[in-house]
Amino acid sequence: MAWEVDPKDPRAPPLEVWERMSPDERARVVDSLPSEFPPSESAPPEGDRHFNAKAGARDALGSFFARIGRHVYLACELPVYYPAEPMFAPDVIAVLDVELRERDKWVVAAEGKGLDFALEVHVAGDRRKDLERNTERFARLGIPEYFIFDRGRLRLTGFRLPPHGRVYQPILPQGGRYSSSVLGLDLMIDDSRLRFYHGTAPLPESNELIGRLEGMLSQVEARVRAAEERAEEEARGREEEARGREEEARGREEAERRLSMALAEIERLKRSR
What we know:
alpha+beta; 6 helices; about 270 residues; 6-stranded mixed sheet; 4-stranded antiparallel sheet; tt1808, chain A
């Protein structure tokens, strides 16, 4: 094999090595790259605030892009391998206009494309990793946009690469919103959660969307029940009206019968005198 993966420091080969490799050699390298952190860098445990923030972001974005039919690959803590770089796994990544399929890792040389968007959620620990080291590294790798949601301090920070640049420029908020030109959305902190906005509308997460749909369904069911009750009441009214007409008709028939009998009796009495 033209490239050996070090299990203690797994890296994809440099681009010049990759380009000299055969398709089979490339496939073997991709297969040998681990899809989890090395034992020396095992991911620390996370609490609800960290997990819910990253999972909610991916969920809201995934639902939105699926609704509009845009192919945007999204993942949480997926191992990412740039050529000759140490593996890293942002909390949320987005890659535009690629095949939507399940992946265990993102190998830039194999995919033919790097990340378009990265989001880190910070709750506790070393803030310099997200705010300093990642900022320098992601810019050097050419990731167009990078956002940090400081869940503990409820702060949002965004960076964008200028054209042909390798040093991030801060994204200045407008009315509390940070614009993502990559996603075509705005980001802001709403109460204690990170929200994405499309125009003035916040992107709902699946549980919120399900709640709305269930509420709409309950309203529809209530209207259907009310309509059915009105129809039943109207039907009962029509049945009572029909019975009334039938009784009235029978009453007329009975009166006419008795009148006929009375007239016949009168005629009989007249003849018998």
